[in-house]
């Protein structure tokens, strides 16, 4: 298996943007509740708030990317506590940047700390443009 070198500064990104707020991590993204008396797992309030705020800040590409894609995501957390988890971000971009998060075939995810301004910096491109 060969390791491919990745140079984000020389990548022809189709889309790049910043969304302010801290994403909910996988460990606290879901909560248990009962709906019509049946047990269900639903998004936590924190996750719902992040998705709502992310959607308001995320561009809407027209047309959406339909090819396999590469993403580079820098997550700036407000504390050292959260684990690196991009899942909710990839889900939230579905229908706004690309049709389905299954199109993501290459990910470059980075953990950063910014106590004052937690945010997510995202770059997306079709995989075939990767140098």
How does this structure look, described?
This protein is an alpha+beta fold and 131 residues long. The protein has one domain (15-129): 2-Layer Sandwich (60s Ribosomal Protein L30, Chain: A), CATH 3.30.1330. Helix content is 15%, strand content 34%. It has two helices and six strands; from the N terminus they run E-E-E-H-E-H-E-E. It has helices at residues 45-57, 87-93; strands at residues 15-20, 30-35, 38-43, 69-77, 104-113, 119-126. The strands form two sheets. It has a four-stranded mixed β-sheet with strand order 1-6-4-5, with helices on one face. A hairpin with a 2-residue loop joins strand 2 and strand 3. It is globular and about 50 Å long. It starts with 14 loop residues before the first strand and ends in a 5-residue tail after the last strand. The mean pLDDT is 87.
The pLDDT mean sits at 87
Reading off the top of the CATH hierarchy, the class is best stated as Alpha Beta
Distance between the termini: 18 Å
Sequence stretches where pLDDT stays below 50 over 5 or more residues: none
Order of helices and strands: EEEHEHEE
Global outline = globular
Strand order of the largest sheet: 1-6-4-5
In terms of topology, how is this protein built?
Blueprint: E1 15-20, E2 30-35, E3 38-43, H1 45-57, E4 69-77, H2 87-93, E5 104-113, E6 119-126
Parallel strand pairs: 4-5
Antiparallel strand pairs: 1-6, 2-3, 4-6
Give me a quick take on this structure.
The chain is built from 2 helices and 6 strands.
